[in-house]
From TrEMBL:
Gene3D superfamilies per UniProt: PPM-type phosphatase domain
SMART domains hit by this protein: PP2C_SIG, PP2Cc
Domain PPM-type phosphatase: from-to ranges: 7-256
Name listed for the protein in its UniProt record: Protein phosphatase
Species classification: Bacteria, Pseudomonadati, Pseudomonadota, Gammaproteobacteria, Cellvibrionales
Pfam families hit by this protein: PP2C_2 (PF13672)
């Protein structure tokens, strides 16, 4: 088997309208092991509150993931490592949720804050994606684009029930109403799914400041044609800003290759997500 190569890049931008960037993004690729991650959080809750919530989430996940590759982890079997990686994500998200809730309880001026979160982690050929809210993860390969997350939003529920088409949802006045977020309830409800990467892959993580303007077809076209692939994050940001930039915009990309000479492609795994019943509705500012 050829050695696995991972490369990452990211960018966040305030956009054309907002006075503050409430998005946070982190990315990392280990220099000694086939390990990389991208984290995107989109905060909400008024002046400074959203920025604080997203920063808490991103920093907490980054800390947990940076501590993962210890002697115990590296000495375990691949199956054990996969379980440890999922467990680390679950623990990190729970801790981030707790920290946000505690901050809200001690600082009343931030009582409305919360954040979406999407994180993609690759160890060897194992990919784990965790998300809550409407920040998204995509995977692109020679077969096309696959969305790895399903939005926790009112319009997504309406699409699922047949009340809206995806095209109608894109224009809906309630498209920014989400049904799950970190910091809203005592218990976080992230969705965590995993896949095995069998071919070269591009992974894109982004906030809804990007997907408000670029649909899946536009995203696929950029990922398929923009080279170097890692620099597509700048193209995504520029495109969203040129189309209006009403929200903060964040994009992170990970390039996975197990063939050093290849341009990154992606896996063609079947993806099935089972949405859970949501009981909280939050309007992002």
């Amino acid at each position: 088997m050829e050695p696995i190569r991972l490369a990452v890049n990211g960018r966040t931008d305030i956009g054309q309208v907002r006075e503050e960037n409430e998005d946070s993004i982190r990315w990392h690729s280990d220099s000694s092991h086939p390990f990389a991650y991208v984290i995107v959080a989109d905060g909400m809750g008024g002046y400074s509150g959203g920025a604080m919530a997203s920063q808490i989430a991103a920093d907490t996940l980054q800390q947990h993931l940076n501590e993962l590759l210890g002697d115990t982890f590296l000495s375990c079997s691949p199956q054990q490592q996969q379980l440890m990686l999922r467990a680390a994500l679950i623990e990190a998200i729970g801790n981030a949720n707790q920290r946000i809730v505690e901050t809200k309880n001690t600082r009343p001026q931030f009582s409305q804050m919360g954040t979406t979160l999407v994180a993609a982690v690759v160890w060897q050929e194992f990919l784990v994606v965790a998300h809550i809210g409407d920040s998204r993860a995509y995977l692109w390969n020679a077969y096309g684009l696959q969305r790895l997350t399903r939005d926790h939003s009112v319009v997504q529920e309406m699409i699922d029930s047949g009340q809206l088409t995806p095209e109608q949802a894109q224009q809906s006045q309630i498209r920014n109403h989400i049904t799950r977020a970190l910091g809203v309830t005592e218990d976080a409800e992230p969705v965590i799914n995993s896949w095995k990467l069998t071919e070269d892959a591009l992974l894109l993580l982004c906030s809804d400041g990007l997907t408000e303007y670029l649909d899946d077809h536009c995203i696929e076209r950029v990922l398929a044609t923009h080279r170097p692939a890692l620099e597509s994050v700048y193209r995504f940001i520029d495109d969203a800003n040129q189309l209006g930039g009403r929200d903060n915009i964040s994009a992170g990309i990970m390039e996975f290759s197990n063939r050093p000479e290849a341009v990154a492609r992606a896996v063609d795994d079947a993806i099935t997500l089972k949405p859970k019943k949501d009981d909280v509705t939050v309007r992002k500012s």
